[in-house]
């Protein structure tokens, strides 16, 4: 009799699957694509070409008996692509707004993205503020404490990350996975870019879901 598939550590694979649309927003060159590459493939490229329009990738994390699959839209940061952004965040259950801790202008721009999401995105969207390039903390122009206060005031999750070293990258996506309402049916918004399959599942103990083994793409 075949049993449930096992993770690499010999534990049973999660038996439930839940898919969520996630969008990354932020100025050009803040490291959005590098964060996704680190999360999805565990890689970092020092010189990353600018995204044109948007790139689509998937990656999954395991929480207890549930696999959470992220359908990730990595949007271009250049101003000329701004008008396309609503096509990608419409219908998204999660958004990661990224800024560069060494560039205060990108933090100001991140605040503008947060305001736009608050006005136009789903009212239940899980928003995360990510201060990337934490490996360059000696050159920072955005203080951690100030960003944390802003995040708290706007009910955002907040982490500083480094796509280069991997610092907090997996933890960021795990925090999102734990925050998403997997025990409630998800409504599919019309006109969403990309696949929008969202299964309502029951996650009994989300507070214990911190191990984060990868369940594959």
Looking at this protein, list some descriptive labels.
single chain, 217 residues, alpha/beta, Rossmann fold, 6-stranded mixed β-sheet, 6 strands, globular, disordered N terminus, disordered C terminus, P-loop_NTPase, Small_GTPase, Small_GTP-bd, transport
Walk me through this protein's architecture.
42% of the residues are buried. Strands 2-3-1-4-5-6 form a six-stranded mixed β-sheet, with helices on both faces. The protein has five helices and six strands; from the N terminus they run βαββαβαβαβα. The protein has a single domain, classed as 3-Layer(aba) Sandwich (Rossmann fold). Helix 3 links the parallel strand 4 (94-100) and strand 5 (126-132). With 217 residues, it is an alpha/beta fold. The model is unreliable at 1-6 and 184-217 (pLDDT under 50). The longest helix has 17 residues, at 104-120. The protein has helices at 32-41, 85-89, 104-120, 144-153, 169-179; strands at residues 16-25, 54-63, 66-75, 94-100, 126-132, 157-160.
């Amino acid at each position: 009799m075949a049993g449930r598939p096992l993770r690499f550590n010999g534990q049973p694979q999660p038996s439930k699957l839940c898919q969520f649309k996630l969008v990354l927003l932020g100025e050009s060159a803040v490291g959005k694509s590098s964060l996704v590459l680190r999360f999805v493939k565990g890689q970092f490229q020092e010189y990353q070409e600018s995204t044109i329009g948007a790139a689509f990738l998937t990656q999954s994390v395991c929480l207890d008996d549930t696999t959470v699959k992220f359908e990730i839209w990595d949007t271009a940061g250049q101003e000329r692509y701004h008008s396309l952004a609503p096509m990608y965040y419409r219908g998204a259950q999660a958004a990661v707004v990224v800024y560069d801790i060494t560039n205060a202008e990108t933090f100001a721009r991140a605040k503008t993205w947060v305001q736009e999401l608050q006005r136009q995105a789903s009212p239940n969207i899980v928003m995360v503020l990510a201060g990337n390039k934490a490996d360059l903390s000696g050159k920072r122009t955005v203080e951690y404490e100030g960003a944390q206060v802003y995040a708290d005031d706007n009910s955002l999750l907040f982490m500083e990350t480094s796509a280069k070293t991997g610092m907090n990258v997996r933890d960021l996506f795990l925090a999102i996975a734990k925050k998403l309402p997997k025990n409630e049916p998800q409504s599919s918004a019309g006109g969403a870019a990309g696949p929008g399959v969202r299964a309502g599942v029951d996650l009994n103990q989300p507070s214990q879901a911190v191990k984060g083994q990868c369940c594959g793409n």
